[in-house]
Specification:
Elements (H helix, E strand, L loop, with lengths): L1 H21 L1 H12 L2 E2 H8 L3 H13 L3 E6 L2 E6 L4 H15 L1 H8 L1
Antiparallel strand pairs: 1-3, 2-3
Length: about 110
C-alpha cells in the first residue's frame, strides 16, 4: 500500500507541474522569459493579453517555482527558474532536435 501511495503522490506532482506547461498562455510566458526577464507590463504587451489574466497565469507558474519574481522599484520583474527550468528546457530542445523528427513532420502536414 505504501508503494501505491507514493506512486499516486508522484503522479499528482507530475500532473500539476506538466499541467502548468501544457497551457498555451503559460508556455507562451515561459517562451518569452526564456529569452529575457520581463515585467508584467512587458509580457502583457508582447502577448497582447490583459494584465489580470496574465497575472493569474504568473501566480500559477510562481506557485510551482517555474518562474521567479523580484521587485525593481514599482515593477515586478519575472524570470525563469534558472536552476531547474532553464536546464530542463535545454534538455527538451535537445530531445526535440534529436528524436522528434516524426513530430515535426506531422506539424508540417
Amino acid at each position: 500500500m505504501l508503494i501505491i501511495s507514493y506512486i499516486l503522490q508522484k503522479m499528482d506532482q507530475y500532473y500539476l507541474f506538466f499541467r502548468n506547461l501544457a497551457n498555451p498562455l503559460k508556455i507562451g510566458i515561459v517562451g518569452l522569459l526564456k529569452e529575457k526577464e520581463m515585467s508584467v507590463l512587458e509580457l502583457a504587451d508582447k502577448m497582447n493579453i490583459e494584465q489580470s489574466k496574465l497575472s493569474h497565469a504568473l501566480t500559477s507558474l510562481r506557485n510551482c517555482s517555474i518562474v521567479q519574481v523580484r521587485q525593481d522599484g514599482k515593477k515586478r520583474i519575472y524570470s525563469l527558474n534558472k536552476k531547474t527550468i532553464l536546464p530542463m528546457l535545454k534538455i527538451i530542445d535537445e530531445h526535440e532536435n534529436k528524436f522528434c523528427e516524426k513530430c515535426r513532420a506531422l506539424r508540417k502536414e
